[in-house]
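Lab meeting, item 3. Inverse folding demo.
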């Protein structure tokens, strides 16, 4: 019995020693290989991360440069043309033809005529495509005698980009707030979220109007055209000299005669009424005066 216990104990001790030896042998190489693999992976990942970061930076820089090249300049162009012509109506017609040629429109027009119905001044506000602004200005300057021409340009590229960026951010913000409103269950939260949503919606509407205005001003150029009537040559010289004085005197005499005739015509009805009522009245007054002035008759003698 005792020998059997000893034999079993020796077997257990031997198995335990073998197990420890095997685990020690296998644990040493495995741990070192794991450390080496980890070190190799870290060493391999470091250049890869660096290359990825460098590549990302290069791609970001390239993207920005491409965007900068791709962004078109947004310019508001305005022009003013002052013309003088003997035929203002004909010049106005030519201006309209030029507008139609470039696919533009007349947004405002005002004309003045003289007593004979002839057009003496014309004021037109034209809208033409911004890409044809220079050509349209050159054609308008050749319509009649050019008195003045001016051009101005305002670069609003930064403003356009800023407005578009704010629009996109505002729309995303409204979408997030709308999602929160759908999920809210507390009345206090609902009121607060709706207040924020209303404020941001108002800001979005304002940005939309700004964007529409910039789009309109940058896509169509504005040109103001003023046309004045040109007097015939020599009209300024005829204002002086003997003939000019004779003509002025004659016109003055005619004006005075017309004025006297007008006054006489206005007084004639009153004169007729005064004659109809005045003559009988004068006769009656004269008779009464004669009666008062007649001497009394002498008394008869006895």
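The presenter then showed the designed sequence:
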């Amino acid at each position: 019995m005792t020998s059997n216990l000893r034999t079993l104990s020796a077997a257990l001790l031997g198995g335990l020693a073998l197990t420890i030896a095997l685990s020690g042998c296998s644990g040493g190489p495995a741990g070192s290989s794991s450390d080496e693999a980890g070190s190799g992976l870290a060493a391999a990942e470091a250049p890869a991360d660096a290359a990825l970061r460098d590549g990302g930076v290069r791609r970001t820089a390239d993207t920005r440069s491409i965007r900068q090249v791709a962004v078109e300049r947004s310019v508001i162009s305005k022009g003013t043309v002052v013309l003088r012509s003997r035929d203002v109506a004909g010049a106005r017609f030519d201006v309209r033809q030029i507008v139609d040629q470039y696919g533009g429109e007349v947004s405002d027009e005002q004309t003045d005529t003289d007593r004979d119905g002839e057009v003496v001044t014309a004021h037109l506000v034209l809208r033409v495509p911004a890409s044809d602004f220079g050509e349209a200005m050159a054609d308008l300057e050749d319509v009649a005698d050019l008195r003045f021409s001016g051009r101005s340009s305002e670069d609003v590229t930064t403003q356009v980009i800023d407005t578009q960026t704010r629009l996109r951010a505002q729309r995303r913000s409204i979408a997030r707030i709308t999602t929160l409103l759908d999920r809210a269950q507390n009345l206090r939260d609902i009121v607060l979220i709706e207040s924020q949503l209303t404020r941001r919606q108002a800001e979005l509407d304002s940005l939309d109007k700004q964007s529409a205005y910039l789009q309109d001003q940058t896509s169509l150029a504005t040109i103001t055209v003023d046309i004045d009537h040109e007097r015939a040559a020599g009209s300024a010289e005829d204002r002086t000299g003997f003939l000019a004085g004779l003509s002025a005197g004659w016109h003055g005499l005619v004006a005075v005669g017309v004025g006297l005739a007008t006054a006489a015509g206005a007084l004639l009805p009153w004169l007729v009424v005064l004659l109809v009522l005045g003559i009988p009245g004068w006769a009656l007054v004269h008779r009464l005066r004669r009666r008062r002035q007649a001497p009394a008759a002498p008394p008869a003698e006895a």
